Amino acid sequence: MSFELQEGIYYHSKPKIGNSFCIVTLRSNDNSHIDEIGKITYRIWNRLQDLKKGVTADLDLDLKHRKMGNLSVLIGYGSKIFEMVGSKKTRPLDFGENWNFKSPDTGGGGILVRGSEMTYSSNVFENHLLHDHVLFQFIAENGFYTARAAVEIWKELHKWKKKTGSTPLRITGIYTGFQRADQRNWQGFHDGVSNLKSRERPYVISINSRYLRPQDRWTLHGTYLAFIRIAIDLELWEDTKVSDQEKLIGRDKLTGCPLVKIDRNGDPVKDARCPVPGTSEVVDAGNEHFRDYPQHRINIVDKILQHSHIRRSKPMDQVPIWDKKSSRIFRQGFEFLEWSKDYPGFIPGLNFVSFQNSPERLFRALTYRSRVQSKDLRVERSPGFERYFSVLVAGIFFVPPNVKYEPFPGSRIFFDNVGLRNLRSMKR
Description:
Layout: E1 3-4, E2 20-28, H1 34-51, E3 72-77, E4 134-140, H2 143-164, E5 169-178, H3 201-205, E6 223-232, H4 234-238, H5 242-249, E7 259-262, E8 268-270, H6 309-313, E9 330-339, E10 346-356, H7 359-366, H8 368-375, E11 389-399, E12 402-403, H9 417-424
Antiparallel strand pairs: 1-12, 2-4, 2-5, 3-4, 6-10, 6-11, 7-8, 9-10
Helix pairs in contact: 1-2
């Protein structure tokens, strides 16, 4: 049997990742049976596969009028799907409660992960992603294609409801975003330039057989998707001196070059070799070497750089890249901007999406600062980057592999062999 990662994880240089992003989450009704959820998921999956070709169920368009937009479709499942009566698979070992986000406090806010400084917004009282069953991720050239895909999900649910009087799934959330053309984030710094090297990515993303129990072997070459929608306190950030911003990030703001030390006056110093002659920013060709964090030991005098964002997002540990105890993850980020009734009238933020072969990797990355400080008493605790952020919603989803001859990824959660044969013969 052929197992491979689903599309929508852009770990190769081609195809190029699209500019528009959308996540749609769904939850089962309390009285829904597992095979009914499987059947509607199968119908949605097939509708979306047609949509990738520009085909919609209600419009028999001529080929020249079909619009595709390089749409990618990925499906994942929340941990609660494995608790449903009739589930054909048990929850994978790495999908345990130890590696999931905490619920917000009843009064609002609260920590996201024990040992991390990331917190929910004080206006957040519930995190529905912790209880949702199905997730779809869409990435495409522009917002039309991702929005159309979300609406096609609703159309299939509506069609089922008209036929039966109810639907096994309901939409619980839609989150959209975009990639900035300048390769910067809302804070004005270059973003996504220090990700994993292409050759390293499969070892981090894809579930390997090293840690799998026999009953979890069906997850081989799947992955885990973590989604965190993060609001940014732009007012607080704009009121922070640029030099302090640079220390927090670990990069020069204008050029994107990495910092190598803090001088006697407390000012950040970038690598003098960057950018190379004839270029102006780290994203320009010839500056590839400077996109990663400098691989030398930072002097304890420059202790603030120990906890800079780029150092923490790519910690220099000695754990092999394939080991799930490594803190390395593969991330894809999309900015967002949404209206707010509160000042300044909008919420800027980041859709943080990461893929890893175990959620343990992400949790190690999120608690890196706390773990380093607990081991090295010489490192003073200083306000971190997290004070500019607050979490709106967060969840972890298992993304099954694409398996040849299976109707849709994860179909074996819902059906045994007989059920799969019956599913293939079901009229759409």
